[in-house]
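COMPLEX REQUEST
Ligand: uridine-diphosphate-N-acetylglucosamine
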Amino acid sequence: MDRIHITGGAPLHGEIPISGAKNAALPLMIASLLTGETVELANVPRLADIASLLRILGNHGVDHMVVGKRPGQTTETGQTIRLTASNVIDTTAPYDLVSTMRASFWVIAPLVARFGEAKVSMPGGCAIGTRPVDLLLMALERLGATIEIDGGYVVARTRNGLRGGEISFPKVTVGGTHVALMAASLAHGTTVIENAAREPEVVDLAACLARMGARIEGAGTPRIVVEGVSRLGGARHEVLPDRIETGTYAMAVAMTGGDVVLRDTRADLLHSALDVLATTGTEVTALPDGIRVRRNGAGVAAVDVTTDPFPGFPTDLQAQFMALMTKAQGQSRIRETIFENRFMHVQELARLGARIRLEGDVAVVEGVDRLKGAPVMATDLRASVSLVIAGLAAEGETVINRVYHLDRGFEALEAKLGRCGAAIRRERA
Ligand code: UD1
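STATUS: Structure written out below.
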């Protein structure tokens, strides 16, 4: 398995292009199952999770074409993918495919909405808590689907198509909202989704569905109303920038010091995280086509953070922020409210000399003057990139094992950081 070697200590200077959002691209690709016409998605990041989902969609019979690079495009400008689900041959999503990526479970919604049946393996994905699918299934049941669990598979069926209904989520769920939106778009009648997730990726999915002919109001607010239509058509849509990648590199710059422009991204996608960074003493400036992040020789102030659904501080940036706080001046309390087991990076950060203790859902981080490089293990997607950030600021060499987690979510990580002066290289197995 590949490893990443980092020699810490160098400040970051330069520009980092931000890729399209993985967490938007995945539901957008899945939405292509709602129509027999072609859905063209631009700015799709080149990531292992995208390739896995293409395999899963291919298994259902979705044709895909990756459009060639245009002159002037680098490999990091994202790819354009055309997906056509005109000939769906199989409504089963098998275990060996779905178990590699949790989001692929969401295919259940377009399959049952368009074809009246879907058989999808219970999901796998990052090992961060139990991550059930009960709310996703509740949403489908509210729209009239019958749900059975059979041999590790969820079987969803409807006789005469889905019907609009009231879906009130007891807890904010991004996946649940994506599923509800896709299913309701092809249901007969009106669906009201209460306590909907407000994440930018939900808004992006709703915008693409609208281009396909769906009638959706209120995406980005807690109450979304969908008037079902009998069919959806093709569309062209550009995936929004990855706010988690943006925040990750912003924290890397805060950690190492330096001056970096994060290009092709938007500050409004991650206000809460940028506000927190500003409180640590990092200079954050919104630019017309990106964000400039600067920190000079001064240290980082300790700040307390609680993760929350959007527009709160994202759980997907919690590990990275914890890495930053390991060298802060003073004590920071980081509370995780979304996933109960999302502290696996704590023991790995401790290997670099971080002082962190867990008190239930709070990690108490006592800032230290120096971290020291060590071999560490990546345990999940966001945890592994927190080790990269810590390694960039540690003395000596940090070796990150099991980097396949990184490849699931961070496009060209070594190249992007390397061009800004980081001493980072991949050792191919
Ligand atoms: C998505 C993101 C993930 C992010 C998370 C929260 C993608 C591909 N993944 O995951 O990166 O960390 O949002 O912002 O977009 N829950 C239930 N029952 C359910 C569904 C969820 O109890 O049926 C719980 C979860 O265990 C968790 C909370 O709801 O505690 C939020 O999960 P959810 O928003 O659904 O996360 P995902 O959509 O899986």
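REMARKS: The domain at 3-15+242-427 is CATH 3.65.10.10 (UDP-n-acetylglucosamine1-carboxyvinyl-transferase; Chain). The chain has two domains: 3-15+242-427, 24-237.
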